[in-house]
Specification:
Keywords: Copper, Metal-binding. InterPro entries: BlueCu_1, Cupredoxin, ET_Amicyanin, Plastocyanin. Pfam families: Copper-bind (PF00127). The chain is of the alpha/beta class. It has one helix and ten strands; from the N terminus they run H-E-E-E-E-E-E-E-E-E-E. The relative contact order is 0.22. About 17% of the residues have low confidence. It binds copper (II) ion. Copper (II) ion (CU) binds next to loops.
């Protein structure tokens, strides 16, 4: 009887930890009104590596698709839409206001593209390492 209680407690703890972990790891943009993706939409993965790269750095997707940026490795990254300028101190990001995550040590960020076009983005922490990317929506 006592053993059953301990096992049950462990299972409950594991379940709580699992859901808490998932809940905090995923940031979702407020742009998507509906939580359910439209039929046929795809979520594409872009890795943010410890080599200061977005992989793949350029990606072509369909209108309505989402891109999920995932932190891989130990370095913290940021994903901000926009371009950059050259300054005396190096490259400086110019956010265009579509999305900007702030630094993420782990987890992911998902953005759904509702309009077509080309969307440049960058990691504000690693612009000088050339950490930029681009999404083309057809
Ligand atoms: Cu970075």
């Amino acid at each position: 009887m006592k053993r059953t209680v301990i096992v049950l407690n462990t299972v409950v703890l594991l379940i709580v930890f699992f859901f808490y972990g998932c809940g905090t790891a995923d940031q979702t943009n407020s742009d998507s009104e509906s939580s359910s993706p439209s039929p046929g939409a795809t979520t594409h993965i872009v890795k943010m590596t410890s080599n200061y790269e977005f992989v793949p750095s350029s990606l072509t997707i369909k209108q309505g698709d989402s891109v999920k940026w995932v932190v891989t490795g130990a370095k913290a990254h940021e994903v901000a839409s926009g371009t950059f300028i050259m300054t005396e101190d190096g490259k400086e990001g110019v956010p265009d206001g579509l999305w900007k995550t702030g630094k993420m040590a782990s987890g992911s960020f998902t953005y759904t593209f509702h309009s077509t076009g080309t969307f440049p983005y960058y990691c504000g922490a690693h612009l000088d390492q050339g950490m930029i990317g681009s999404i083309t929506v057809e």
